[in-house]
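This part of the workshop introduces the protein records we will be handling. To make this concrete, we reproduce a full record directly below:
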Amino acid sequence: MKKLFVIGLFLISVASFAQRRGVEPRVIPAGQEIELKDNKFYINNEQIPSYEIKNYLKANDFKAYSLFNKSKNKSVLGGFFLGLGSALIIGDAVKAAVSDVDYPTAMSYIGGGLVGTSIFVLKGKKQKMRDAIDTYNNGLKTTSQTETTIDFVANNNGVGLRLTF
């Protein structure tokens, strides 16, 4: 009974300390350009994680968000093809080394095809990421160029101020 109590207490203490602390997400300043350097995102020379950029684009610019998601999906799919193709090639080579079978079997050719496919899938991900960030940054430039003017107006209705934007 004592051992069971100690084990239970140990498991409860481990579970209580394993809980994630409530870390508030970083507030990304609105209207700031996002810079893309070496596949990392910077705002005001401060590195921002990609999941925060994703949430920020989702809330502010849907077109940039969809391009960002397409880039991430290309990365995941290309990585999957590359890993699966490499595993098939290595698995076939190990099978041939262990047993007496002809080495390049269909498994190697399928693996080679998947590796080749992954190259073409991964090829466009950087460009889509650049397009997403450029779309967001260009959207900032067009929205910040609105001109507001205040005019003093006098007509047959009276005197007043006219605000145009």
The radius of gyration is 28 Å.
